[in-house]
Amino acid sequence: MKKASGAALCAVVVVVVAVLLCEAPLTAKAAVTCNPLELSSCLPAITSSAQPSTTCCGKLREQRPCLCGYIKNPNLKQYVGSPGAKKVASTCGVSIPRC
Questions:
Q1: DSSP state of 98
Q2: pTM higher than 0.70, yes or no?
Q3: Which of 45, 51, 36 is nearest to 85 (CA)?
């Protein structure tokens, strides 16, 4: 009897582990690689009155977790905090964080 219950327990553990492994890719979020060059498609809209492209807005949403790092970088702060960048962020529905 003990042998049967041990085998059943082992089978249950195997099934639970298999289910968790199968679900992991569905629930895991990919890490964002912070690269300000990813926002180069936004440059025309930042420096002119042009509307931001869908590519620009997508990249801006993707890079949202990186914006504080860009704001704290003395070489990038002037671009992220510029009126043109704020206009593009607003048009794309992305709020610029206070860091």
A1: P
A2: no
A3: 45
User: What is the C-alpha separation between 27 and 29, in angstroms, rounded?
Assistant: 6
Q: Model confidence over 62-75: pLDDT tens digits? A: 999 999 999 999 99
pLDDT in tens, 32-47: 899 999 999 999 999 9
Structure tokens belonging to residue 46: 């930042």
Position 4: which residue type? Answer: A
Residues 6+ away with beta carbon under 8 Å from 48 = 84
What three-state secondary structure class fits 32?
A: coil
**Cβ–Cβ under 8 Å, residues 76 and 43:** no
